[in-house]
Structures are given as structure tokens and as C-alpha cells.
Amino acid sequence: MSRIGRMPIAVPSGVTVNIKKNRVTVTGPKGELSRSVSPEIRITQQGDTITVSRPSDSKEHRSLHGLTRSLVANMITGVSNGFDKYLEIVGVGYRAEKTEDKLALRVGHSHPVAVTPLPGISFAVEGSRVKVSGIDKEVVGEMAARIRRIRPPDAYKGKGIRYAGEKVRLKPGKAGKVIGKK
User: What is the distance between the alpha carbons of residues 32 and 178, in angstroms, rounded to a whole number?
Assistant: First the structure.
């Protein structure tokens, strides 16, 4: 049995879950999310808990069991609390500015790079940190990855855009001239 798949999902107050065939719709204070799941996986709601079950122990059903449970749990967390992803900008002269709903990044290119948010995503700039927030965990992660891709951390100096808490291993530079040459 999947350890993740068999755990029940608690539904907080203010969140409603609607399950019709293989479509799960979750509505909460921050918005509404809807997703189609595999028709073979059964999702049942009893009071304020949701359980996910599978029909057999085949490899496909075992993999879908934990995945479906995680997706539904993330939907419930997203509509009640939302998700945030932080990015750090490291480098002299590197900075980010929020203009209207877009994000303007000055990260060593000849011009500022404008980033348009995906639907349901909002940006906040706090010094050299950029906060990407939204209710869908997948979309928040995708938007953060797109921003990081503009200037990934350099392997020699560490300059660039990185996730908060990401460790960048720096390579040593040139060894220099050989001393004591004869």
C-alpha cells in the first residue's frame, strides 16, 4: 500500500470539495481549482476527510494512488493558504522591479527583461528577493523556474537568480602561473 496514498486528507472549514466521476473541484477563500484524475482511482469524501483508494496492486495503480492523493491535497492547501516560492537575485547591479502586474529584471543583459505572470500568479519584490505566489502549486513552480532560467547562477562567481536557500557550488578559477619556473 502506498504510504502517501492511504493517508486521509483533512478538509478545512471554508473549503468545499465536489467530486463528480473523475473530476475534482475544490473551492475555497482564495479561489477555485479543478482537475481531472484517472477514472480508475476512487476518491471518496466522508464528512471533512477525503480518502483515495486504488482497485488493484498493479504498478500503474500504485503510482497513480500516491500521485492523485498529493494532487488533491495540494489543491486543498492552495485554495485555503496558497503557495509561495522565493527567488534571490545575487550580483552587483542585479535587481528586480515590479511594474503594474509585470516583473522587470535587470540581470546583466543589455536591456531589462520583462516577465509577464501566468494566470493566477502574482509577484512581490522585497529588496533582492522576488516572491512568486498563487493557488496552484504547479503553476507557481513553473513561473519560478521561468524566472530562474533568465539568468541561472554562474558556476564561478555565483551571480544570477537562484531559489531561496539553494546552495550553489562554485568551481575554482584558474590556478594561475606556475611559481619557480626554471
Answer: 65
